Amino acid sequence: MLTLALTAFYSNFTLSNASESSPTFYVSTEGSDEWSGTLSVSTDDKTDGPFASLEKARDAVRELKKSHTDLKDVVVEVRGGVYELPNTLKFTNDDGGDSPENPIVWRAEEGASVLLNAGRFPSDIRPLNDLATLDRIKPELSGKLCVIELSSQNIGDLGTPDNSPELFFRSEPTRIARYPNDGFVKITGLSKDGTHEVDIRGVKGIAEGKFSFDDEEILKCLDEKDLWVSGYWFWDWAEQKHRVASIDPSSMTIQVMPPYHSYGYRVGQWFYVFNALCELDAPGEYYIDRDEEKLYFYPPTEEWKVGDFLITRLPRVIEFDGVSNFVLSGFTMIGSRGDAVSGVNLQNVTIEKCDVYDVSGSGFSLSGERILVQECELYRLGRGGVRVSGGNRKTLEPSGNRIVDNYIHDYALIKRVYEPGISIDGVGNCVERNLIENAPHMGIGFSGNENLIEGNEICNVCFESNDAGAIYTGRNWTMRGNILRGNYLHDIQGFQNNGCVGVYLDDMFSSAEISGNLFVNVTRAAFIGGGRDSQINHNLFVNCNPALHIDARGAGWARDHVDEWIQEGKDKGTLSGIKYREEPYLSKYPQLATILDDEDSAHYPEGCEVIGNVCIGGFWDVNKRGQWQGDTVEKAARPYLKMENNFIAEIDDGSYFEDSYHGDYRLKADSAPVQSGFKPPLVSEMGLRSERMKNKARSQRLLL
Predict the structure, then answer these.
(1) Which residues of 270-308 are buried (b: 16+ CB within 10 A; e: fewer)?
(2) 35, 139, 212, 525: most buried, per Cβ within 10 A?
């Protein structure tokens, strides 16, 4: 019946029909895959109407393309409702349009909520009344806990506590039972038994994971059958999770299983234990017993119903492979154990007005050319927000990828570090007018050449890490031509206010323009870590302590890295694998072509400029008593820098800004910096652009 209906439709569909109206397929929760899918609602006699499944609509478009090669304006419209996906929805090179001007469009019904759910709303839930289990937790919690039978939910592989299904309750993230419930326990000592010492730039520790603690609460976890720890074991920016091999109560020592942390372990660093049934003691915590296939949960409220629970299930919501000329518009996606949308080898693919939340992976992970991600809200993510790569670093062919006007917040809930709100890699990627906030580590990470990061607002990131960058990149001489312009970074202080970095050009990264940005309450707001040919020009720094950091690490503790690059240049004629003395690099970056002509100066930040900046409040490169602030601007770097025409005022006396007390940092027309010729950053061109996205941000901030 279905085959006959579709055959009739395809044979009757003509190009003249296409010119008169767009060929559109419809999907509805009230549809049927036995129908043609060409009607938005069913007929009165229920013999035709929309499809029921997304897969059927995809296959119908494929068949239509086979029979009509010159189709125009093909649309799949999904009507409002919740679509619980049986499998990841996959698109290939069979599913795109024939040109950028004629894409295949998948869109949600206008004004309707269309939810694509890769998770599972579990149904087999009951109050926990098993006395033996309650005795392992706290008997006084009887009547407050519930149990979900996972064996009947088609969840699939339960993984490990580092990669398990995640539970959301009433669209709020929960967490695996842990101790302490908030904060961390400190490492108080290191084992000398069978361990090897490490010494990294004078910071000492051990290579193997065997360390002591002084919090006796952890001893309650001795009988846990699959206990784990998560910690910042050596550096404040490098977190890792381990399974616990043993706990010795006599010495108060934990031994973890390898692989060990790549840097090692040292006294004073912090960790917590998790996946402990005995620590299921706070509302919003859960524990999975993998042997019994049960999930135990402490609901935040005594009143709950089956529909309140969501468990992540499928690896992805949508997967693209080799798709060209495609638009995905207006969908909401939840419930994946991995990235909500992944895509490789893409050409001219747009994702717009799509919201992603309650997923264990990232929002979008995409590679290709001319990718556009715009007006999407991504939040409550286990990993990062949007990851896009494209372009050719050898030829410097730009990708044309753009990430514009998105609101990304409350991410990296599981993998805490190196999961930025936005990450770009390659050549010619543009990140423009996004709002990124509330994350334990980076806001934007970038690598490659000729990338533009402009007009973004970033705040309250790096709150669980130090020596971390709100905008970060590092360790390359050849990744040149990047522009970071007109961004607004504010309220970024690091873990326990110990300091982090605004724009962080780490470990000799070179040739970036940091210009026209507004930094407010950011430590080490603009940071050049030994790199060359970068500019910090025409920025406005307000209450930044310090505003500036430049060092000569390439001639100091990081000298070995530079020596390795020099040796590569001698032996292979390349730097980081790039033929830097050949076209197009020779013409594009002439300073790079001569970088090894003087091997000694190659170790220093030669060619950097710091010109025409304004610093009000906080301090610039010395403190208010005129004393050097450590290596804020290292003396060894100063001979190689061009620093001029920078306006510095130690105190905001009210004569500079329109209303700094209420966050209005527009400089007054008659203020001294403006009168001296400084062109202030255009605050009106920072942050979200569309009213739709601004309203989303306002609504979220009202909830906080």
Answers:
(1) bbbbbbbbbbbbeebbbbbbbeeebbbbbbeeeebeeeb
(2) 525
